[in-house]
Amino acid sequence: MENSRKRVAVLASAGLLGNFENKKSLEEIIFDASKKVLDSLGLTIEDIDSLVLAGQDEIDGRVISIMPSTGPAGGVGKDTTLIASSSDHALIYGYLRLLAGQGKNVLVMGWAKPSESVDPDRAELMSCEPFLLRRIGMNNTIAAALQASKLVSQGLETSNSTGKLAWPLGDRDLPARGDSVYALVLAVEGSFTPGDEIAWIEDAGWTTMSYELGARDINDFSALKIAIEQISNRSPHATSKNWHAIEIAGDSEYVVRSVSREFELKSGVEINKSGALADLPTSPFVSGLARMVMAIDRIKHLPKGGNMVAGIGFNGFAGQGAAVVVFSGSKGE
Amino acid sequence: MTLDNVGIIGFGQSKFVKTRIDVTFPELVREGATMALENAEISIDDVDAVVYPLAPDALIGVGNGERWVIDALGAVGKPFMRVNNGGATGMSAVLTAWTHIASGLFDVVLVAGADRVSESSSAQSVLNKMWDVGYERPVPLNTITMLALSAQRYMHLYDSDETDMAMVSVKNRYHASLNPNAHLQSTVTIEEVLASRTLAWPIKLMDACPASTGAAGLVLVSERYAKKNGLKPAWIRGLGQNSETYWMGNRVGPKAMGDHADADALAVAFQRAYDQAGITNPREQVDVAEIYAPFSSVELHVIEAAGIADKGKSPAALANGDYTLGGNGVTVNPSGGTQCTNPIAVTGLIRVGEAANQVLGLAGAHQVKGARVAIASAIGGDHQFYSTMVICSDLEEI
Q1: Is any Cβ of chain A less than 8 angstroms from the Cβ of B67?
Q2: ipTM beyond 0.85?
Q3: pTM (2 decimals)?
């Protein structure tokens, strides 16, 4: 479907990530990230029209995550929505809000602070339905291992990573876990001085596949393929073969390595130039948004013109859902 | 802001009850989706994207429960996201669906979900945990005690009493007796309400909503889709949201940011929707209000926040016969409202659906005669998140 709306830009992004933050509460790091991104633009929260937040009740240890987080994010007196399915969905929803004419700008934030959780593994287990997956003890690591083992059975080489946790995954194959919070300010063209933007959003695609692992082929990347197809159908210029760089939050490095095999990509495309999954501690809930922030950051490292970077996130066990946002360095790429 | 026109072409809801042992949670969600699609006379294949409302994960006992129900919703392979704005979730999800369409990327969006509040081992224990662990959780607050404080403040500030609250219950129970989907369908008298068990003074059992189980869904479409297919939707003419402070301590005492007796942040959300819809005098321009009020005391200040009555004046108007089906002025909660049916995740969605049915003349025995303009609202968190909408049968000037 053709979209002739005003273009949406990213004005600033900020991330606070670390292994485990034990001097500040979740609410304090949310406040810090919100202030950091606004300070970088010389703005105050009064300049922001609305907020889109992303938090996960169980990881946050807050029954309704939006309640304690709205104040420190700056949402009191404002239109605030929490997207709970994935932090990268929050970025996409912020984009949709501006396309829909809901204000001139939006503050998007996503976070996870598993260090405050009594038992993050238990919280992960609670995301299993109670009839089958919870009983067999499914979690993200086991699902990622099942996916990786199937990729290996189809010819993908095993990694050299030592310290095997769940075959074939070693400790360097898995994303590092830690506390992180990300904040972005999006704005619609005409509401800021041209040149103040750090990236433009070309398009976004997202979808979710069947829940039960047995009901889908866990290594066919169907959610990612559909998300990319949505973008290609609407914005052919933003298709995967035109991407110069990709930042991808895979469930394991096996997923990252599979992308170049599964998709038609430009020769020499940079994949996860920002760092390996094991080097950037985050949480599965926020890892997609983290990589989108890194994709935006890649824009400024690429030559002017012709620089399109995709941020890719997954949600659910073994890539049940996928989200792709394509950024570019110039309007009308 | 100029709104793109988005309409509602389908609304489905189950008969709400205390428990449903005949279905799993995903099967219940499927009911909501199926009923909405059938009412819209389309199939899931016609749907471009799906928005799913689910409030606290803890109430259904599954984290990120949206991932579990996606097959049942029929949303596999479609753009899909979940909203969680506490009790306002159902309406925030409709607003999110509206945004999908108004963005220009989609023509048909399904919003559907379910809740089984009474099947949580202790809903109020879960809801106590929504407060800060160090300060307000140990008070102990839950949704009943939190709103009992508000009711006490309202009584003090406006010289109101428990009979005023009981009048709201009597009205809503009468309305619900005409609504085949309502959870509580028996009528009550003022004397019965006043004699019912005190939960947290002044809130008594018959002032309180039930913990409901059931499902609901809506189908939203773009104006171009409606025209192309010769449809006559209920049009969303205005919408607004606003957020309040988290802390109860910020709503009482001399340094309060807002008075806990009132719903001033909700009034701001209503004004945002009114500005978009061109409503300058809701008492004259609005026919029906489907407003989120889980307790009788809440309805009084929500009526006032909507501009249907001045602050502190809604009890007198109610005593004068206002707000009741067949009575004077704006009819408030002709479905019986949240006080008679509260499946938290979809309660806000039902407010929108009931409002749409009213302006389309489809509300059956609880239809407000000649209704053209309806308003709807929802409240989430500890009276912290507010959503509002104006819905009209046409696109003419209101």
Answers
A1: yes
A2: yes
A3: 0.97
